[in-house]
Predict the structure.
Amino acid sequence: MRAMVYRGPYKVRVEEKDLPKVEHPNDAIVRVSTGAICGSDLHLYHGMMPDTRVGMTFGHEFVGVVEEVGASVERLKAGDRVMVPFNVYCGSCYFCARGLYSNCHNVNPNATAVGGIYGYSHTCGGYDGGQAEFVRVPFADVGPGLIPDWMDEEDAVLLTDALPTGYFGAQLGDIVATPWWCSAPAQWGCSRLSPHG
Amino acid sequence: MVVFGAGPVGLFAAKSAWLMGAGRVIVVDHLEYRLEKARSFAHAETFNFVEYNDIVVHLKKETDYLGADVVIDAVGAEADGNFLQHVTSSKFKLQGGSPVALNWAIDSVRKGGTVSVVGAYGPFFSAVKFGDAMNKGLTLRMNQCPVKRQWPRLFEHIRNGYLKPSDIVTHRIPLEHIAEGYHIFSAKLDNIIKPLVVAGQS
């Protein structure tokens, strides 16, 4: 298959690579239809991320069609249109049980420091990513979701990282809803009139 | 609230803030075309930090000298804006990233306010103004996003028409030409905001 390959800082190219195989019964192989380059891929591209190995395929934002599933996969089948979160996570460890999927303890030898991410160096687990024709998706019953019929594929691919991350950033801010009679004075430049500051 | 960084994540953060009831949304960057997108897509006020001596002082002025309630760092480890930070991180690898945006966030949030970090930082330490954060009584919140937890609500927002994520897509690059895509994105050419990679068109 064709895949993007890292050759060193500021050097990437497209190469012929072996097709990914089902390595574990809960793996799926996904044929990528749309992927994306994320701003954080540029850290890898610039050689800023430790343990980014030559030969690695980047790409943690991708959607596609399930090509093949392992024997224990129950929630996906070949032909399903799926969107795959950038997190690789097991769904059953202490942290996943608390919804901290990005802090999964089972998917990365460096798990005390960082979780698993597709195509994001061996610091983040060494998983090949989705800037390729095919990608291996571990824990296929856990991460991937079906793309609803009404959703555009280009919206779906942005739901694998960029949009949820932005939304999450705003969520972490614990924004207190401001009624208009409080926010209006702030916009006129006299926010001390407003009880919310 | 203030968002540092008008890339895809910053734009979505600014847009989301309105959905959560923010009274005022300000986006800071240095790329004018991205600030234009912040105005049109996220309906935010924008400041280009290159135009101000000290963007932190300007943000204080804009908020009655109190500071913003919430500041989001949607920039991460390769921020521009401070030469010393840039040299020590990108050039000499003396620190894990250049936390310019994070330090500006700590400085421009009000005392007792919240700094939310979703910009990417590597595992190595960075020169963050932690003392100021402590002395101002800030709440620092951060994580990589647990994506699937956000889906149910985001699906509803998209279906109801409150959000159209693909509005920020500027480039569709065939996989075969992805090296070009990395170069355009890295050098911020051609008013790029979000490049998608499309299969099977080479």
User: Anything to note?
Assistant: The longest strand of chain A covers residues 28-36. Strands of chain A lie at 2-8, 11-16, 28-36, 62-69, 81-84, 87-88, 116-117, 134-137, 145-146. The CA atoms of residues 42 and 152 of chain A lie 26 Å apart. The longest helix of chain A spans residues 162-172.
